[in-house]
Each structure stands twice: as structure tokens, then as C-alpha cells.
Amino acid sequence: MRIAVLSETDAAEPRVAAVPETVKKFMGLGADVVVQSGAGLKAGVPDSDYEAAGAAIATSAEEAARDADLVLKVRRPGADELKLLKSGAAVVAIMDPYGHDAELKAMADAGISAFAMELMPRITRAQVMDVLSSQANLAGYRAVVDGASEYGRAMPMMMTAAGTVPAARVFVMGVGVAGLQAIATARRMGAVVTATDVRPATKEQVESLGAKFVAVEDDEFKQAETKGGYAKEMSAEYQKKQADLVATHIAKQDIVITTALIPGRPAPKLVSEEMVASMKPGSVLIDLAVERGGNVAGAKPGEVVTTDRGVKIVGHLNVPGRLAASASALYARNLYAFVETLVDKEAKALAVKWDDELVQATNLTRDGQVVHASFQPKAA
Ligand code: NAD
């Protein structure tokens, strides 16, 4: 069994799909691991560390991918990479499949078995493979660090001989994995933290982290969580009540971190232009939903916008990639845990159980077809 770890071709992707620790584990499964030279550099892993862990270093993607049974990547392989892969190879990555029918077909045409890590079901058995959580957790942490660095004042209250610096007020909107970590991080830095969400279960979680919960707690709120644990899209009436509440609260905040997402829908618009305009000069908004349409009016993907009143709106892309070493280490462990389920340890070979629920949930293409139920080509 030959496993290839390729460099990411997207210059904006500094993460890598394997780290020395997981290379050793793959070798323990009886695999040969080949790493493309330089694949880990942006995540702080030189070729020599992979070599020390037992990997061979290939000088090109072509050499690394040649005859590989399994290819590990962070992002979906592009057309140039698909040409390098042998038919029947398995490729595991964050595939970003929604709205990319042509790219899915290209993977099917290349004959590969593509697995999308972000489609992993959120069940107990697959927790260790949950890339959404591992990456969102880091994004939530990084959002606070970015907020603190853009904010021209201190986060904790400081009583000095020269006077007192007040604690920053941080407001977290959307309390999923990223939001919870943002609350915890802002609290550790000494901020006064409030948070909001439409799912009632989050109230207790917010309070257990020492923050204050702010939300419209009406009948709709009590039923806003789907069976899967996600948020529903709220009615126009609820959104109006929520906006009124947020409008009075946000004007007093120094740093606002938004993380709100609804599966399969554009991100809800939570902060209007008027709300941004009501904030104090020097305050900062960090929009973690910017890649899905954004929660904040005026947020621009990949940019830090300063309004004419001196409020900064931060729209960094690939926020987990801003912590490339930690994000790669956790992602690599998520991948290893999944790949382990695809391997016959006695035969030391890939032996995918196609009826396993983890495989069914993540497998996009196989034997020249797009096989995933959610991505079937539409009938003409
Ligand atoms: P997400 O990224 O889909 O959304 C982020 C947050 O935004 C959610 O808390 C959501 O309720 C909130 N939101 C949506 N619309 C909003 C609005 N209009 N106003 C305010 N907030 C809004 O969420 P996630 O981080 O993926 O977590 C979703 C759920 O999955 C949670 O219940 C979480 O506990 C659960 N989860 C389960 C597992 C597991 O069982 N293995 C792992 C991770 C997360």
C-alpha cells in the first residue's frame, strides 16, 4: 500500500495533510509513505522531519503520486493533479463539493475514489475524524487573537499607576464549535464576554464558560434546533426581533466575532450597515462566515475594511490556515483515524467497506461515477 502526501497547489493553503506523527502511524499499518518535497514547509514541517519518520521524499507531485493507492490532501485535487493519479486510487481531502459539479465529474472521470472529510457524520464513532470541529475550534481561537491584534486597546482590565484600562467587551454571535472556543479564548484574555445563538442549548454552554447569554427567547427560539443539532433558518419576524436586540447591544461592544452558519444556506445576515455605524471608532468585527456570504454587512473576503468611522471589519479567508501547524496536526490526525478504517491490517492493503456509514457519507466518486446521493447529476 503506497500513500502519497502532496503539496497543496493553492498558494492560499498552507496546511498539509500528514505530519511526522501520522506518517509513523501509516508505516505502522504497513504502508509506504511518499511526501512531495516541501509539502509541510508552510506548516513548519521540513522534509527532513518526514524522512526521520520513515517517509520517502519525492521531488515532484508526479513522482509522489505515481502508483499511489491512497492520496492525502487538504483540498480537492485539481485537473493537473488528477492526471497524475492512477485509476482506482483513493483520495481523501476537504472536497468542498457543493456547487462544484464539474469538478466532481472530473474526479469521477479520472477514476478515483474521492472522499470528502467534511461530510463525515457527527456521530460518536467519527468524532476523532471530525475536521469541521478540529478546524472550527482553531478558527474560533484565531478570531479572538486577530480581533485583539486589530484592536488598539488592551483586552483585560489593567489598573496601573497611570490609570485604569477598562476590559474589552467581546460579543460572539453564533455559538457552535468556533463560537465556544472564541468565548473561552476571550475570557482567558480577560474580556467581558456576551454571546448569542438561536439554539436554546447554547444558553447553558455560554453561561458555563462564564459569559452572558443575549437572545430573543420566544417560542420560535425554543424550536430553532434541528434533530441534527444545527440551526434552522429563522422567520422574518424573529430576525427583526433579533436585529432590534442586537442593535442596542452591539453599539456598546469593542470586538464582535460572528460565526453563524446554516447548513446548505447562505450565512444569515446578522450585523447591518447601521449596526456597524453605531459602533465606537476603533472597534473590530471579525466575520468568520465571510466565505459563506458573511454575517456582517460590508465584510469583504480576504480583506480588512476600515469604515469611515474607523470601525474595522475583518474578513480573513482560511482562518484555520492562519494556524497552519496546529491545523495540520489536527487535520492529519482526523485523516489517519478515517484511513485506518479503510485498511485491512492483516493484508496491509486498502480494503474499503463500501457499505460502512462513514464511507457512504463521505464517498463522492467511484468507478467513474459520482456516487454520493447528494450530488447526483441533475436529469436533463
Ligand atoms: P455551524 O458552524 O453550523 O454554525 C455555527 C453556529 O451558528 C451554530 O451554533 C448555529 O446555531 C448558529 N446560528 C445559525 N443561525 C444563527 C442566527 N441567525 N443567529 C445566531 N446564531 C446562529 O455550527 P457547528 O459549530 O458545526 O455546530 C453545530 C452543532 O453540531 C452544534 O449543536 C454542535 O454541538 C454539534 N456538534 C456535534 C459534534 C458531534 O457530535 N460529534 C461535533 C461538533 C459539533
UniProtKB/TrEMBL annotation:
GN (gene name): pntAA
Residues annotated as domain Alanine dehydrogenase/pyridine nucleotide transhydrogenase NAD(H)-binding: 148-315
Protein name: proton-translocating NAD(P)(+) transhydrogenase
Signal peptide residues on this chain, from the entry's feature table: none
Main function: The transhydrogenation between NADH and NADP is coupled to respiration and ATP hydrolysis and functions as a proton pump across the membrane.
Family annotation (NCBIfam families): PRK09424.1 (NF006942)
Pfam family, one: AlaDh_PNT_N
Enzyme class: translocase
InterPro entries named among the record's database cross-references: Ala_DH/PNT_CS2, AlaDH/PNT_N, AlaDH/PNT_NAD(H)-bd, NAD(P)-bd_dom_sf
Catalytic activity, as annotated: NAD(+) + NADPH + H(+)(in) = NADH + NADP(+) + H(+)(out)
Family: Belongs to the AlaDH/PNT family.
Keywords for the protein's UniProt record, in alphabetical order: NAD, NADP, Nucleotide-binding, Translocase
Coiled coil: none
Documented EC number(s): 7.1.1.1
Domain Alanine dehydrogenase/pyridine nucleotide transhydrogenase N-terminal: 4-139
